[in-house]
UniProtKB/TrEMBL annotation:
InterPro entries the UniProt entry points to: Diguanylate_Cyclase, GAF, GAF-like_dom_sf, GGDEF_dom, Nucleotide_cyclase, Rev_trsase/Diguanyl_cyclase
Substrates-to-products reaction catalysed: 2 GTP = 3',3'-c-di-GMP + 2 diphosphate
SMART domains: GGDEF
PANTHER family linked: DIGUANYLATE CYCLASE DGCM-RELATED (PTHR45138:SF9), REGULATORY COMPONENTS OF SENSORY TRANSDUCTION SYSTEM (PTHR45138)
Highest taxon of the lineage: Bacteria
GO MF entry, a single one: diguanylate cyclase activity
The protein's name: diguanylate cyclase
Coiled coil ranges: 232-259
GO biological process: cell adhesion involved in single-species biofilm formation; negative regulation of bacterial-type flagellum-dependent cell motility
CDD domains linked: GGDEF
EC number: 2.7.7.65
Ranges where the GGDEF domain occurs: 287-424
Record keyword Transmembrane present: no
Length: 437
């Protein structure tokens, strides 16, 4: 066999080298594809994890939104604290939660609602103590928008340690004043606290703080309104009472201004008003109106003999006796006209009835048997002038008074202790015996 020429051998070596190079390149490519594939898988896995975490975060955010909405509808502070703990645990994946309120002026904290070691909602309103001077508490209560977390911390229920786990504190604020905090832990399920959960807790604390402030202001306003209402009611009551007292005083005053101070019967002022009203009524109704004018006989002598005080007593007794006679006639107005003179207005009655009333009056005064040493009758008597009119629009009211006055004058002149009538002309009514009885 003749050896291959050199150039042929060289060609073979070249081909071999090319083969080796392409194989190498293929292997390198394969390696690269493999590496690429692995990187893609890991990125994909990472993306999946992140996706899951974001989905969880979004779902927590949605839950937080629902919780906040429910809290905003709480009807009072107690319900707000209760709902916050209940819903916070239920929807924000927290094992245990508790809400504490602070009063920095008094350096006091007090409980509201919390969670027992079995995960039940419990009232902690009876719990109160000084704000603990602990670095974790100090950090939490001095920083806004900040969640303080302590891992592997002792977990408590009241003063008893009930386990170990993470413990988180989020302060709540009214402006720059810390009003309390939310405490949370993982006592029951020991789940780790994710960054997203921490963020949610922070938002929850801020939202709850806001709701507490709104509700407190609302309740303060309600209280103020109640106090205001009570004060207004009190004032109104006092005003009503004052008005009633004033009304009573006015009535008393009106009565006094119409009443004769000595005898207690109506005074001249009342008589004047009654006369005007009765006169107008009589004109309108076409009914009669009668007026009696009574005068105590020889009263000057009486005063002179028995004294002014006895004179006053005598007038009082006469007024009372006349009142008894007039009482059955509710429309009759008996009044003290002035001094020792009385008047009596009698509407709508017949002349006979008025005459009978007058005679009863004469008799009633005599029957008082008030001794009068200076009178021919031996006792105090009165004389009566009576005027009866059928008032019409063209008549003057004064004619009634003038008539009664004329009749009285005549009764006096004719010997006193008797009745005279004036109906246009003077008429003497049968003289009652000049004696008592
Ligand atoms: N005690 C007392 N006396 C009074 C009061 N008002 C008037 N008088 C007196 O009554 C007397 C009336 O006297 P006169 O008007 O002269 O009439 P009279 O003595 O009654 O004589 P006749 O009317 O003619 O019978 C006077 O002395 C008055 O001072 C009073 O309120 N109390």
């Amino acid at each position: 066999m003749t050896p291959e020429p050199f150039d042929v051998q060289q060609k073979m070596v070249e081909s071999l080298l090319i083969l080796i190079a392409s194989d190498l390149s293929a292997r390198l490519l394969q390696q690269e594809v493999l590496t690429h594939h692995l990187t893609r898988r890991s990125v994909e896995a990472e993306l999946e994890v992140r996706n899951h975490s974001i989905t969880q975060y979004l779902s927590l955010l949605q839950n937080l939104h629902r919780v906040t909405l429910t809290l905003s509808k709480a009807s009072n502070l107690e319900q707000l604290y209760r709902d916050a703990v209940q819903l916070g645990r239920e929807y924000l994946a927290i094992d245990r939660m508790a809400i504490f309120l602070t009063d920095f002026e008094k350096n006091e904290m007090r409980g509201t609602f919390g969670t027992d070691p079995q995960g039940n909602l419990v009232s902690r309103t009876e719990f109160s103590s000084a704000i603990p001077d602990h670095p974790l508490v100090n950090e939490a209560l001095s920083r806004k928008d900040h969640v303080v977390v302590k891992e592997n911390a002792p977990l408590y229920f009241g003063k008893d340690q009930v386990g170990v786990g993470w413990n988180a504190m989020i302060a709540m604020w009214n402006g720059d004043n810390c009003i309390g905090w939310v405490a949370a832990d993982n006592l029951i399920n020991q789940r780790i606290l994710t960054e997203h959960q921490k963020e949610i807790l922070k938002l929850f604390g801020a939202a709850l703080g806001q709701q507490i402030v709104i509700r407190r202001n609302h309740e303060m306003l309600k209280q103020l309104n109640l106090e205001l209402e009570a004060r207004v009611n009190e004032r109104t009551k006092a005003l009503v009472q004052a008005n009633e007292a004033l009304e009573e005083a006015n009535q008393q005053l009106a009565q006094w201004s119409m009443q004769d101070g000595l005898t207690g019967i109506a005074n001249r002022r009342f008589f004047d008003m009654a006369l005007k009203r009765y006169w107008e009524q009589a004109v309108a109704q076409g009914s009669p109106l009668h007026m009696l004018m009574l005068d105590v006989d020889h009263f000057k002598r009486y005063n002179d003999q028995y004294g002014h005080l006895e004179g006053d007593n005598c007038l009082k007794k006469i007024a009372s006796a006349l009142e008894v006679i007039v009482k059955p006639y509710p429309n009759a107005v008996l009044s003290r006209f002035g001094g020792e003179e009385f008047t009596c207005l009698i509407p709508s009655q017949s002349v006979d009835v008025v005459k009978a009333i007058s005679h009863r009056m004469l008799k009633a005064v005599r029957n008082l048997m008030i001794s009068h040493g200076q009178s021919e009758f031996g006792v105090v008597t009165v004389s009566i002038g009576c005027c009866s009119q059928q008032p019409t629009a063209d008549m003057e009211v004064m004619c009634l008074l003038d008539g009664a006055d004329k009749a009285l004058y005549r009764a006096k002149k004719q010997g006193r202790n008797q009745l005279y009538q004036y109906n246009g002309v003077l008429q003497h009514d049968e003289r009652v015996e000049n004696c008592v009885g």
